[in-house]
């Protein structure tokens, strides 16, 4: 297997969790965001997580852009986790 074959999947998925690819933007609707994302202001996120917790959620996993991961993790801990 060549290096290109071993890494081409990374090119295909490079925008996932990091930015919205212009070619994919037309597929992102308010309904998609509501159904598949936990998003909003900290109090919105806390409310969404409480609702999901009532339905059996026991944890979350999220991926952050490397250049801002530390700041975003701190913000999430301070503004969301602290209010759970």
Structure description:
The protein has helices at 3-12, 30-36, 42-54, 69-79. The protein is extended and about 50 Å long. The N and C termini lie far apart (47 Å). The chain has one domain. Helices cover 49% and strands 0% of the residues. The chain is an all-alpha fold and 84 residues long.
What is the secondary structure topology, with strand pairs?
Elements: H1 3-12, H2 30-36, H3 42-54, H4 69-79
What can be said about this structure in brief?
Helices cover 49% and strands 0% of the residues. It is mainly α and 84 residues long.
Provide the helix percentage: 40-55%
Radius of gyration: 16 Å
Quote the distance from N terminus to C terminus.
47 Å
Strand content: under 5%
Order of helices and strands: HHHH
- The overall average pLDDT, rounded, is 87
Number of strands: 0
User: Structural class of the helix and strand makeup?
Assistant: mainly alpha
Described by the principal axes of the CA atoms, the overall outline is extended
**Spans of 5+ residues with little confidence (pLDDT < 50)?**
none
Largest sheet: none
Helix segment count?
Answer: 4
What descriptors fit this protein?
84 residues, 0% strand, 4 helices, single chain
């Amino acid at each position: 297997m060549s290096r290109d074959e071993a890494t081409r999947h990374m090119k295909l998925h490079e925008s996932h969790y990091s930015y919205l690819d212009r070619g994919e933007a037309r597929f992102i609707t308010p309904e998609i965001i509501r159904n598949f994302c936990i998003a909003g202001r900290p109090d919105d996120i806390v409310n969404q997580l409480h609702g999901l917790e009532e339905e059996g959620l026991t944890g979350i996993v999220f991926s952050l852009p490397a250049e801002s991961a530390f700041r975003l993790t701190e913000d999430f801990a301070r503004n969301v986790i602290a209010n759970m």
